[in-house]
Amino acid sequence: MTESTITRPWLRAEGLTRRFRNGRGVGPVSLGVGPGEVQALVGPNGSGKTTLLRCLATRTRPSSGQLAWFGSTDRQEARRRLAVVFDATAHADELSARENLSFFATARRVDPDLWEPALEEAAVTELADDPVTRLSYGMRRRVLLAESLVGDPPLLLLDEPTLGLDVNGCRWLAAALRARAEAGFATCLSTNDTDFVEEVATRVCFLMDGRPIRNAPLAELLAELGGTREIQLTYRGPSPAARVSQIRGVERAVDAEAGLLILGRHRDGLLSEVLATLGDLDANLVDLKVRDPGLADCFLRLTGKALHD
Amino acid sequence: MTDRGEVSLPRSRRAAPGVSRRRPVHLWQLELKGTLARRRALAIKLAFPLILVIPLVTAGAPPFFAGMLLTVLIATIGTVGTGVTVTRSRGSGWLDRLAVLPLPPWRVGLEIFFASWLVDSLQGSLVLAVIALAERPDPATLVTTWMMALAALAFSGALGLGIAALTDHAGEAMLYLAVILAPLLFLSGLFTGVPATGFRFWMAQVLPYSYLHEGFQLLLGGNPPYGEPLSFLVAAVVFLALAVAAAAALGGAVLARAA
User: Could you read off the pLDDT of A149-196 as tens digits, one per residue?
Assistant: First the structure.
């Protein structure tokens, strides 16, 4: 696997594995996250993203391999310089967002002058005195993110960061992560929200069935898709996936949640041939979308499987 | 990062001063404030021991049996208060969040234990207050038994923390609690009295519930064989210290579970 170009990253994993009693788990994974980088861990459900992130976040001890934070293997020391958001929105529920934030910020030794701006940036100031339990799920996620972003921790680890966020919330978070990267802070996030990853990530590590498939800069992955198109067909009738796969220029054709997902080299006549195949099989076309490919197509190309089944 | 392995970090963004700092900044403050904010649950929590102690005292129940029930009550309050709460906290993901903070595990264990013990002590103190009002006991016995009750609550709280290190389910924690507490209460002489010699005599000397049982008997007009207020005081200090040390030691195990 290609490693980060930064030779001495703040977060480094070497041959890291974490196995559960049932044999499932993640690894071996080697990766590094350096200052100014946003490393995304992308994969379908059950691919091992969260397990890997929990190891990187000092929460779970790996079964084998090495982990170092800021050049040290001391987990307690690492916790002084990192902040983590897990997928659960656990708070002291009866207390307000302000009270919760003050606790987490104090534990991380964040200057109290930064507490209020963190709530303002997360747009939760108006509700910041209400008990967290009365906030909507999305607002609780915002509070959770504000608690982790406050004080600009050098290393931030986020599990499914866009979970529950509305469009504005995603924009705010993307801007915050980009600002962190520009300021030289490091972030590692696990998600299968590829649109968000394309907005914020500098590197992407694809995972599947607990194994890393590819770890490369985002720009490099997207460049490899140059000249291809993603065609989404919604149809009724027999699956045309096998027949469509044989059409010249089609790299992948798989049935996914949205219908038939086709990744192919752009050329005149490609779409006509796909539609003709559909007609041959007596399948009815319900909807058709053609768009420039993205990270999800990169995953499809690498694995032959749709990221969102 | 420099060649020597030192890390140079970017500066945090700054903001204007003037932020209120009167908010819970320690875990025990946060836990305690959270418990006090759940008013209905708190009212039930405080009413629960009163429902037991008031009829016992007003009906003039035999001191041995009344003391036994009140000791079981104190032991249950302490173990359930901490054990089930911590198990639920793990289920909600709260312990995950605490585990990745730059707080030493012993301190997390101690602060959770302390917050729980404060609320449990309020419950236990209500029991003693009812007895004090109804029986007008000797002040020295009242104070030393009260201290013994606080120590027994701390011991039970540490026991609850230990149970929380064994399981992820609140229901299972209750089963563990019953399985562990029942023999301890038996060995404390609650059901049969403390024999003059042998294994059970010595076990009763090293368990807080035997001292508390005798204290309650004294307060309720009984005449237990070993009841001595000074011994309650010494035992209270020893069990309190043991409970604090155990809670600190168990912090790591509680956080490590399901990691």
Answer: 999 999 999 999 999 999 999 999 999 999 999 999 999 999 999 999
Cβ-defined contact of A99 to B96 (cutoff 8 Å): no
CB distance from B254 to chain A under 8 Å? no
Residue B135's domain comprises 48-256
- ipTM for the whole complex: 0.84
Q: What are the structure tokens assigned to A31, written together?
A: 């990766």
d(CA B35, CA B33): 5
Nearest CA in chain B to A9: B1
Q: How far apart are CA A133 and CA A95, in angstroms?
A: 8
pTM score? 0.83
Q: Which chain A residues are within 8 Å of B102, Cβ to Cβ? A: 76, 79-80, 107-109
* Residue A74, number of CB atoms within 10 A of its CB: 13
3-state secondary structure of A194: helix
Q: Note whether residue B183 is domain-resident.
A: yes
A12 DSSP assignment: E
Structural domain boundaries, residue A256: 226-293
Q: CB–CB of A95 and B100 under 8 A?
A: no
The alpha carbon dihedral of A106, A107, A110, A115 has a sign of negative
Give me the residues of A, 207-236, that contact B with CB < 8 A. Answer: none
Angle subtended by helix axes B139-164 and B63-92, to nearest 10:
40
Contact B37 A94 (CB under 8 A): yes
Look at residue A174 and tell me if it is in a domain.
Answer: yes
Tokens representing residue B121 in the block: 């002590």
Tell me the C-alpha distance between A69 and A77, whole Å.
Answer: 9
Q: How far apart are CA A298 and CA A251, in angstroms?
A: 11
Q: What is the pLDDT of residues B122-136, one digit of tens each?
A: 999 999 999 999 989
CB contact under 8 A, B100 and A102: no
Domain count for chain B, please give it: 1
d(CA A275, CA A285): 8
Query: What tokens were used for B64?
Result: 């041995």
Same-domain check for residues A254 and A146: no
Chain A contact present for B92, CB below 8 A: yes
Bridge partners, residue A261, by sequence: A232, A254
- Structure confidence by residue, pLDDT tens digits, B185-235: 999 999 988 888 888 889 888 999 999 999 999 999 888 777 677 888 889
User: Which domain CATH number covers A287?
Assistant: 3.30.70.920
| Tokens at B51, concatenated | 């429902």
A268-282: pLDDT as tens digits = 888 888 888 888 888
Per-residue DSSP letter, A60: S
**Do B11 and A90 touch, CB atoms closer than 8 A?**
no
Structure confidence at residue B227 (pLDDT):
67
